[in-house]
Each structure stands twice: as C-alpha cells, then as structure tokens.
C-alpha cells in the first residue's frame, strides 16, 4: 500500500492547494527521470510523488481520502456489506452495495494487484460519478502503464502527448509616471532570477497586463515554458496627477507675478521649462503646455496643464496692508456671484 500522500509531499493535512502544488512541483523537479536517469530510487520517488499528488492535488479525491472513502492508492475502502458469492469464479465486488461506478478492463493489473478468479488479471477503477473508467485505463497504458513500471503517469513522460506546458508566472510591477514618459525600456527582475527589459505600452493603464511569452515557469515534462504575466501598478506622484495622457500640476506664483506677468520655471517629468504668466492672472487660471504629458494610445503625447495658485507670504508688510485697505475703498470688485 502506498504511503500517506501528505507525508510523501511533506505537507500537513490542513495545507492549502497552493502549498500542495508548490511542494509537488519542487519534488517532481528534483526526482524527474530526465535528470536522474541513472538513479532508480529517484525514479521510484518520482512515481510516488506523482501518485500522492493525484490524490491530494485533486479536490474531490482529497475529500474522499480525508473522509476515509479511498486509500492512498486511490482505491475505495470497504467497511461492510459484503455478501458471499464472490468465489473463484464470481465477481469479488458483487456483494458490495451503493457503488455503481466500478468499471473493469481486461489485462494489465496495476503493480501486482491480483485479479479475481483463477488469477486472471483485471484492472478495477472507481469513479465517483458512476461512469466507466475505460478511458482512464487506456490513457494509463498509452502513458506507460501503472504502478508496476516507472510510476503512475500524470501528464509526465515523452509519449502520448504527455508533455505539459509550464505554469504562468504572475508578477506585479509598480511603475512611475517617469517610467511611462520615458522612451527607455523598463528593467524587471522576475522571481525566477531572470532580468528582462520591457517596453511599456503607450497609454498604459493601472492593472493593465503585459504577457511575456516563454518567461514563466519551466515545464517539468519537457514541454514549453509558461508565460510571465506582468500586472502594472502606477505609483502616485508627489506633484503631478494623471488625466489620461495629460498631466496636471498646481504651480504656486507670487501676487506680483500674477498681477504684473512674468516668466517662471515649471517642472515637467523630464526637467524644467519656462512658462509665461500673463499679467492679471487669477489664482486657478490654467495654462496648457502642449506635448509635455504622457505617451498616448492614439500616438504623440498629451499635454501638461499648469494651474496657477497665488501664494502670499506668511508675514505681509504694513505698507502692503495699507495699500490693500486703500484699494478696497477706491477700487472694490466682486469675484463671486451675488447670493
């Protein structure tokens, strides 16, 4: 009888699906026959790992095993209900009720399982939905047989289309607005240890995914590698906000620059530029600097929208306050709508 599958994989009975899958991948890679051709013990261990994963890696079989309905070989456990009559020439399962899902095929008993009656070898397979297991039995023969050979096959082996594609690798990548604006490729380090240079798509959006073909997990069966799937996160910027391909910036200016007009410096993602503040500019006035935004999906670049904010000093001189009082008396105006 096979060992407890949890023990074989080195996980607890409360292990999650991802923990079980991770343990299986690690052990299968370690003991795979392709890398242990001269080590029969490794091949036996590989078969044992595959057999264990067939039980606890399958949700339904795992539940059946945990309830004690099947054993570590995947065979149903019988607790009673046997009626005499099996005999050497009868059906050894004829007396068991409540199991309609048995199928049997001629030849090829698994790993020395004796067939019923006169030593004739028969393979028995239980399926929970009551359907025939003939297809599964044929698939076992196509993939190299059962336990009597190098191990129970689970998509492994070189024949019968057994090579499987490696698993995809999912990676979250946080990028900055400077990254999106740059024409340089972004260097990304993958969990596999590989470093790749990635071209960010124009107009990239948060949670957008980039698929890198063949850069995922290696196949354990000689098949093609999986893909690396990058999910983009866009980091908040300390001074710019994003509006599609446009960027927005709040720019503090002095009262006298706003009143008299001036040339002032304004930051962009690639450096600073001079902008013209028109005379008599109010706080909240927006200036558009064309082509200084982010790359657009439609081609070209968006704009930088600069909103002027008049900034008064913390301490206002007395003569300035006197002038404001005089101005209020002589030149009153209403910036807000009445009411």
TrEMBL record:
InterPro entries: DnaJ_C, DnaJ_domain, HSP40/DnaJ_pept-bd, J_dom_sf
Composition-biased stretches (Gly residues): 108-120
Gene Ontology MF terms in the entry: unfolded protein binding
Residue ranges of domain J in the record: 4-69
SUPFAM superfamilies, A to Z: Chaperone J-domain, HSP40/DnaJ peptide-binding domain
Region called Disordered, residue ranges: 108-129, 143-164
Keywords of the record: Chaperone
Gene3D superfamilies membership: DnaJ domain, Urease metallochaperone UreE, N-terminal domain
Protein name: J domain-containing protein
Naturally occurring in which organism (per UniProt): Acuticoccus mangrovi
């Amino acid at each position: 009888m096979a060992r407890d599958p949890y023990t074989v994989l080195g996980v607890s009975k409360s292990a999650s699906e991802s923990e079980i899958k991770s343990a299986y991948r690690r052990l299968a890679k370690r003991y795979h026959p392709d890398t242990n051709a001269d080590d029969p013990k490794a091949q036996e261990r590989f078969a044992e790992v595959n057999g264990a994963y067939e039980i606890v890696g399958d949700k339904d079989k795992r539940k059946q095993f945990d309830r004690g309905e099947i054993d570590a070989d995947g065979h149903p456990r019988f607790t009673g209900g046997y009626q005499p009559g099996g005999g050497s020439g009868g059906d050894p399962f004829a007396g068991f009720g409540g199991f309609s899902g048995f199928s049997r095929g001629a030849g090829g008993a698994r790993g020395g399982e004796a067939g019923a009656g006169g030593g004739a070898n028969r393979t028995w397979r239980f399926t929970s939905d009551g359907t025939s297991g003939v297809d599964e039995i044929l698939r076992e023969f196509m993939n190299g047989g059962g336990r009597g050979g190098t191990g129970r096959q689970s998509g492994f082996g070189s024949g019968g289309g057994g090579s499987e594609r490696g698993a995809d690798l999912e990676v979250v990548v946080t990028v900055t607005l400077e990254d999106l604006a740059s024409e340089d490729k972004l260097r990304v380090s993958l969990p596999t240890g590989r470093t790749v240079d990635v071209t960010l798509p124009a107009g990239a959006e948060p949670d957008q995914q980039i698929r890198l073909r063949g850069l995922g997990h290696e196949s354990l069966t000689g098949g093609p590698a999986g893909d690396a799937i990058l999910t983009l996160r866009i980091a908040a910027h300390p001074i710019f906000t994003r509006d599609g391909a446009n960027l927005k910036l709040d720019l503090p200016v002095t009262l006298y620059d706003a009143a008299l007009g001036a040339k002032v410096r304004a930051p962009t993602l690639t450096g600073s530029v001079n902008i013209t503040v028109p005379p008599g500019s109010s706080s909240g006035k927006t200036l558009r600097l064309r082509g200084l935004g982010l790359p657009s999906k439609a081609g070209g670049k968006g704009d930088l929208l600069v909103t002027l904010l008049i900034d008064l000093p913390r301490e206002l001189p007395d003569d300035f306050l006197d002038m404001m009082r005089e101005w209020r008396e002589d030149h009153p105006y209403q910036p807000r709508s009445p009411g």
